[in-house]
Design goal:
Number of domains: 1
Structural class: alpha/beta
Distance between the termini: 46 Å
CATH class: Alpha Beta
GO molecular function: pyrimidine-specific mismatch base pair DNA N-glycosylase activity; uracil DNA N-glycosylase activity
Largest sheet: 5 strands, mixed
Number of strands: 5
Keywords: DNA damage, DNA repair, Hydrolase
Shape: globular
Order of helices and strands: EHHEHEHEEH
Organism: Amycolatopsis albispora
Protein name: Mismatch-specific DNA-glycosylase
Strand order of the largest sheet: 2-1-3-5-4
Number of helices: 5
CATH superfamily: Uracil-DNA glycosylase-like domain
InterPro entries: MUG/TDG (IPR015637), Uracil-DNA_glycosylase-like (IPR005122), Uracil-DNA_glycosylase-like_sf (IPR036895)
Helix content: 25-40%
CATH architecture: 3-Layer(aba) Sandwich
Length: 178
Amino acid sequence: MAAAGGGEIDDVLAPGLKVLFCGINPGLYSGATGLHFARPGNRFWPALHASGFTPRRFRPEEQRELLDLGLGITNLASRTTARADELSRDELQRGALVLTEKLARHRPRWLAVVGITAFRTAFGRPKATVGPQAEPIAETRVWVLPNPSGLNAHWTPTALGGEFRRLRVASEAEDHSQ
């Protein structure tokens, strides 16, 4: 896995998605497999299912099937690292510029950033909290979710699923109002 450091993995992205989930950056396990949120202890896939975004718990190798559900995955920083805190402020801010370009080009309805601290740093929004954000990015509504990493233990699986569910409900309410 050490050889996976510094590598990149491909986005799961298409125009007009309902929600584009944005991780901080791929971990070494994801870099080694080429799959998002691939480490077995990562709680992204269970939270996605618990929230009702997916009809069953997907495995990382099924990530491309998210597109059929109007969902996608990208990252703030593309470089793989053992821990997100290995990324510099400049790297996160450069990633925010690249992400903003992706949003302008692909126009998802929602951006869901999984990691409040990285979001605050990348977009210069130090007072941001978990949940919907007042300001869109490139005309895309923004929701900040807790980081699903197992290292973020103060968010229980139940609470994490509940926060993902709040986003799903908001995105579906928007669908019905159009």
